[in-house]
Amino acid sequence: TSKTFSLTFPADYTAAHLAGKTSEFTVTVKKVQQPVLPAIDAEFAKSLGIADGDLDKMRAEVRNNLEREVGGRLKSRTKDSAMTALLASTSFDVPKSVVEEEKQRLADMARRDLEQRGMQASQIEKAGLPLDLFAAQAERRVRLGLLVGEVVRTNGLQPRPDQIRKLVEDLAQSYEKPQ
C-alpha cells in the first residue's frame, strides 16, 4: 500500500533551499509486524543465562534484578533529596574558577557521550555546546562537593571495610560473573 501526501518544511528549516517549500512524499508500507511474546519455558530461561533452564531460578533472578534496580533508584532518590535539603539549608559563595572548571568538565563529558552515541565531532562543534548550558549543574556540584567535604572533614567520617565490601558486592551483582 502506498500513500502520497504534501508536506511544507518549516520556514526556519536547516536546509535553506527547502525552508518554507512544499514537497510531495510517497510512503510505501512494505511490511507490518507486531511483537510476539516468547513462550516462558526452559529455552527462554537459557536465553537469559540460566544454564539448566530452571524456570524457578529464572524467576528468582528476575526478582533479584528488579529488587536491586528498585533499591538503587530509591537510594538515589533519597540521596538527591538529602543533597537538595543540604543545599537549601546553606548559603555561601563558591569560587568562580572552580565552577568554570566544572562547567568545562561537564561539557567535555557531554561531548564524549555524544561521540560514543555515534555523533561526529564536527557535528558536535557545529551544533555547539555552550558552557552556560552547564552553569547550574556545575554550581550545584561544586557547592555540594564543598559542603559534603566539610561534613566529612568535620566529623572525621571514613568508610568502614565492611561498607566498602558490601558496596563492591552490590555493584558486582549486576554483572554476568559477579566474582
Can you describe what's shown?
This protein is mostly helical and 179 residues long. 56% of the residues lie in helices and 8% in strands. The chain contains 6 helices and 2 strands. The protein has helices at residues 42-47, 55-88, 96-116, 121-127, 135-155, 161-172; strands at residues 2-8, 22-28. The protein has a two-stranded antiparallel sheet. Helix 3 packs across helix 5 (135-155). The longest helix is centred in the middle third of the chain and has 34 residues, at 55-88. It is flat, with a radius of gyration of 26 Å.
List the helices and strands and how they pair.
Elements lengths: L1 E7 L13 E7 L13 H6 L7 H34 L7 H21 L4 H7 L7 H21 L5 H12 L7
Antiparallel strand pairs: 1-2
Helix pairs in contact: 3-5
Tally of helical runs: 6
Percent helix among the residues? 55-70%
> Biggest β-sheet: count, sense, barrel?
2 strands, antiparallel
Structural class computed from helices and strand pairing: mainly alpha
Write down how many β-strands occur, each being a DSSP E stretch of 2 or more residues. 2
